[in-house]
Amino acid sequence: MSAGGFFRLDRPLSLAEAAEIGGARLAAPVAEEGVVIIGVAALDRAHAGDLSFYDRPRYAAGLRLCRATACLLRARDLPALPPGVAALIASDPHAAMARIMAALFPEALRPQSLFASSGVSPGAVVHPSARLEPGVIVDPGAVIGPRAEIGAGSVIGPQAVIGPDVRIGRGCSIGAGASLLCALIGDRVIIHPGARLGQDGFGFVLSRQGHVKSPQIGRVIVQDDVEIGANTTIDRGATRDTIIGEGTKIDNLVQIGHNVVIGRGCVIVAQSGLAGSCEIGDFVALGGQSAIGGHLTIGEGARIAAKSGVTRDAPSMARLSGVPARPVRRHLRGELLLDRLARRDGEPPC
User: Where is the active site (predicted)?
Assistant: First the structure.
């Protein structure tokens, strides 16, 4: 059985082309004609034809073992590069690597048709009143409901469900098994497999006589260039909209409650939870498994560390960690003091 890669090389890149795309420069002229990059690999696994990058001292051992054709690294790390490996000098090697990889393997940037099809597959179910612009691809098993609209260049994966009146912009990718209800989706949005958008939020009026379900009649609005990870859930609003701002990137397994408003350019890492009606400012970063309480406001540019529990409003540019979340320095001082109190006499720290 073949164990080849899953992504096809678009075309080989010369070292000069790779440097230009990545915003890097060749440390020295390359004598051999026809030296090209045809793949990428980790430092300690690379071989001829591969490109690697080095940006952290913890990978110094891998750099010493590198046998790649070329390596992206900072100028200060050049002396550690083994002979025979061409050096591409970049101020941010990781970012340069990402740009070059996008040129080498453009199909990996967003989910493609899993059936290698074009147009609407005979196995898809598209309501007669749905409107699809030219160039839309619909894989087998997908269901597109009445009055839905999908823009040119979008791909709807197998078993995806697009509900009634949903609008999807141009150049979007909707992964296999995703479901979109009560949603308006902008252009160039990526929604990975299994994501759920627009289901009703967890809205109940609690009482001793029983919990009364409160109808959720809002929408989910996803602006341009958003990416939503696999198995993430975004509830529709109750009496207002749930909004995901332009350019925001959401990881896998994130829960976003009803009426949440997320600003532009935010990053929300896996297993985070945002309770209903909280508001997240522009360019906020939430670490993995962080939790934001309901009806709270997180100011622009705030950073919330992984596993933090936010129980009160956070100002702009705040740096918070811990449970309950508090300024990082205060949290770390408290943890150090607690560790000292709990440690037995003479017991070394972990």
Answer: 258 (proton acceptor)
What residue segments make up the domains of the chain, in order of their start?
A: 13-109
Taking domain 13-109, whether its CATH number is 3.40.1390.10 is answered by yes
Q: Is the pLDDT of residue 2 over 70?
A: no
Active site residue 258: yes
pLDDT in tens, 300-314: 999 999 999 999 999
Residue 259's alpha-carbon distances to 54, 202, 237, 315, in angstroms, are 42, 11, 4, 20
Q: What are phi and psi of 137, to 5 degrees?
A: -110, 130
Of the residues 47, 192, 211, 258, which is catalytic?
A: 258
Spatial CA neighbour of 239 closest among 273, 203, 208 = 203
Phi, psi of 111 (to 5 degrees): -60, 135
94 φ, ψ (degrees, to nearest 5)? -65, -45
Cβ contact 55:4 at 8 Å: no
- Could you report the per-residue pLDDT of 201-213, keeping only the tens digit for each? 998 988 888 999 8
For the record, the structure tokens of 13 come out as 């890149």
Q: CA-CA distance, 297 to 315, in Å (whole number)?
A: 8
- Position 32 confidence tier, pLDDT thresholds 50, 70, 90: low
Q: What is the pLDDT of residues 63-80, one digit of tens each?
A: 999 999 999 999 999 999
**Residue 1 confidence (pLDDT) above 50:** no
Residue the block writes with tokens 């939020």: 201
**Cα distance between residue 298 and residue 315, in whole Å:** 6
